[in-house]
Automatic annotation (TrEMBL):
Lipid bilayer topology: Multi-pass membrane protein
GO cellular component, one term: NADPH oxidase complex
Membrane-spanning residues: 94-118, 176-198, 218-242, 254-271
The keyword Magnesium is assigned to this record: no
Family matches, as Gene3D superfamilies: Nucleotide-binding domain of ferredoxin-NADP reductase (FNR) module, Translation factors
Stored Pfam families: FAD_binding_8, Ferric_reduct, NAD_binding_6
Alphabetical list of InterPro entries matching this protein: FAD-bd_8, FAD-bd_FR_type, Fe3_Rdtase_TM_dom, Fe_red_NAD-bd_6, FNR_nucleotide-bd, RBOH/FRE, Riboflavin_synthase-like_b-brl
Official protein name in the record: FAD-binding FR-type domain-containing protein
Keyword Transmembrane: yes
Segments forming domain FAD-binding FR-type: 300-415
UniProt keyword list: Membrane, Oxidoreductase, Transmembrane, Transmembrane helix
Length: 580
């Protein structure tokens, strides 16, 4: 292992030096015995003893990462095997992509046959323009359909629909279709511009392009004018949708508002092309129904509610405890849009519900402070709490009993809980949704591997809390001896048998956000495992193994470790010299 590890470190490229150093390690770990012979074996106790005696060696060793041994296998895997695996895992995606391509080709062929054979128009630019126009109709209808969030939520909730429809890709598909729409519109416009340039018919090219001189269009010959406006609107919309703008802090609202241009684009397209409405009417009616349905966000039983309390977890994160409206129901992993109108008016932001659906009273959101809305909310509550004249009902400091020196400074301040009174205006909240995500399928799988980074863990926390509730519901206490038992084997009746939760964090401190839930789950799991009889445990592999395994990874290293990591090869050698 060391030989392989060191051979990858650039300092030890010289073979001789490498062997010399490996020899030093061997001498360090396999010292000479009483007969002056080098030991050949090292048991764990001896290994542990050496490390205990030499903390500096231990410090150097624990920073060594094991080389990626899978690489070798990967290289050996032949490309078509990988392709086959990809196709197997993405069958429905590929099927939908092929369907999309086939429909597009069919539409192109239809336009060619209709214009060249039936209408006997042989102008190539005109036929190309018509093809572009037809593809605009198709892609517009599809782009709107892909953003029917309620419909997507329904599809996700219906098992047999979602295994055929790749609903998890609807946003990616929307982006792709939007790009195709833009390309089709460009083809349509450029082909018409070329057609005008070829057939001037006594007009200037400018008058044909920018006035009604060309006399085309079914509403007062306005197709050229509406076409130019559409062209400009589409360009604005596309530019503001670029990832570099959309994901830039503070620019999301620009993306959002320019996307509302699809309404004027819809109206202009109806005026521009006589057949457009036939394509768009279905998706647009559904879209309007969804929008009307979502107005329930202002109704007290569905969306208008209030904050019960908030908890400032640390200097970046806060949790909102929201009163659950009586008719609001959701599934694990779903998210809502929230607006706090008395703090930031008319701005809605999506957050995953990280409490479980079994909790009847509360919805919990955990929010990480970014640059705009989230920062305003965080600062509003932390300022309000800090000011002396605030009228918050209760402030509690929940000490996490962590003795570490670095944390104890923070723990005097965090987490802080603020409970709201009924009179407080800033506690008013409106919620819209719920909308689904792929986390909803957790309970349909036997073994799930949940991977979350930082605050991205929130959907899984909801699932864990839900499992705690399910376990607790089946708990019963023996009236004689008081031991805890479970009425039936929860794990046996449920499809989900095993969860591996991988949580990648910058800092170990982030664990405090959800520490209570993780602790509760551990305790519940221990109690459940302890209650299964030894007989059961040996018989059933599933029951013997832990239900949840949490794998925590911290990506940031403390500055003192950073220097150490850089000097690692030298440190190792120096420390081993010390040992021998
Ligand atoms: C389905 C979903 C679930 C989410 N769940 C959580 C969660 O549980 N906890 C959490 O802390 N964060 C969550 N987020 C991210 C959260 O919505 C954004 O961090 C928040 O909206 C940023 O607001 P801001 O004005 O402070 O952002 P800015 O500082 O302006 O921007 C920061 C980033 O957030 C993005 N963003 C800004 N506004 C929105 C918006 N309305 N919709 C989508 N993205 C936006 C921007 O593109 C940018 O990349 C979730 C996002 C989505 C899409």
């Amino acid at each position: 292992f060391y030989e392989q590890y060191l051979s990858e470190v650039k300092y030890f490229k010289d073979e001789k030096r490498l062997h010399e150093i490996v020899e030093i390690f061997l001498q360090g770990f396999f010292p000479l015995n009483n007969e002056n012979q080098q030991q050949e074996e090292l048991n764990f106790e001896q290994f542990h003893h050496i490390l205990q005696e030499n903390p500096s060696v231990f410090q150097s060793l624990y920073l060594i990462s094991i080389p990626d041994q899978d690489n070798e296998d990967d290289e050996q895997t032949i490309w078509f095997k990988r392709w086959w695996m990809y196709i197997k895992n993405n069958t429905n995606r590929i099927a939908f992509l092929i369907l999309y391509i086939l429909i597009s080709i069919a539409l192109i062929i239809y336009v060619i046959i209709y214009h060249v054979i039936i209408l006997e128009k042989h102008s190539v630019p005109q036929v190309i323009a018509r093809i572009g126009g037809m593809l605009v109709n198709f892609n517009y209808a599809l782009a709107v359909s892909l953003m029917l969030k309620q419909t997507m939520t329904i599809i996700r909730r219906l098992y047999y629909l979602r295994i055929f429809i790749p609903v998890d890709d609807h946003i990616d598909a929307h982006r792709f279709v939007g790009t195709m729409l833009f390309i089709s519109a460009m083809i349509h416009s450029l082909a018409y511009a070329l057609n005008f340039a070829i057939n001037l018919n006594g007009h200037s090219w400018f008058s044909l392009m920018f006035t009604t001189a060309a006399e085309i269009g079914w509403v007062s010959h306005s197709a050229t004018i509406t076409g130019v406006i559409l062209f400009v609107l589409l360009i604005i919309m596309v530019i503001c949708s670029f990832q570099c703008i959309r994901q830039r802090s503070g620019c999301y609202q620009l993306f959002r508002y320019t996307h509302y241009l699809f309404w004027p684009i819809f109206i202009l397209l109806v005026l521009h092309a006589p057949n457009f409405w036939k394509w768009a009417i279905g998706p647009m009616v559904l879209f309007c129904f969804e929008k009307i349905y979502l107005f329930k966000r202002y109704l007290p039983k569905y969306g208008r509610t209030k904050l019960i309390s908030i908890r400032i977890e640390d200097e970046h994160v806060l949790s909102l405890m929201i009163e659950k409206p009586s008719n609001f129901n959701f599934h694990v992993g779903e998210y809502i849009n929230i607006c706090l109108p008395n703090i930031v008016r008319n701005e809605w932001h999506p957050f995953t519900i990280c409490s479980s659906p079994e909790r009847k009273d509360i919805l919990r959101l955990t929010i990480m402070k970014k640059q705009n809305w989230t920062r305003k909310i965080y600062e509003h509550f932390s300022k309000e709490q800090n000011s002396d004249d605030n009228d918050m009902a209760e402030i509690t400091v929940d000490n996490l009993n962590n003795k570490s020196e670095t944390n104890s400074r923070n723990l005097l301040v965090y987490p802080r809980e603020i409970t709201f009174t009924d009179k407080q205006k800033d506690a008013i909240a409106c919620i819209e949704g719920p909308f689904s995500t792929c986390t909803s399928y957790i309970f349909d799988c036997e073994h799930v591997v949940l991977v979350g980074a930082g605050i991205g863990i929130t959907p899984y926390i909801s699932a864990l809390e839900s499992l705690i509730y399910q376990l607790r519901e089946q708990r019963c206490k023996c009236s004689r001896c008081g031991t805890m038992n479970y009425t039936q084997s929860v794990l046996k009746n449920q499809k989900l048998k095993k969860i591996d939760l991988i949580w990648v964090n910058r800092d170990i401190g982030n664990v405090s956000w959800f520490r209570n839930i993780l602790d509760e789950f551990e305790a519940e799991q221990e109690s459940y495992l302890a209650s299964t009889t030894p007989q059961e445990r040996t018989n059933s592999q599933e029951q013997r193994s832990r239900y949840l395994d949490i794998h925590l990874y911290c990506t940031s290293i403390r500055s003192n470790e950073q220097t150490m990591l850089g000097n690692l090869p030298y440190n190792l050698v120096a420390n081993m010299y010390e040992v021998i």
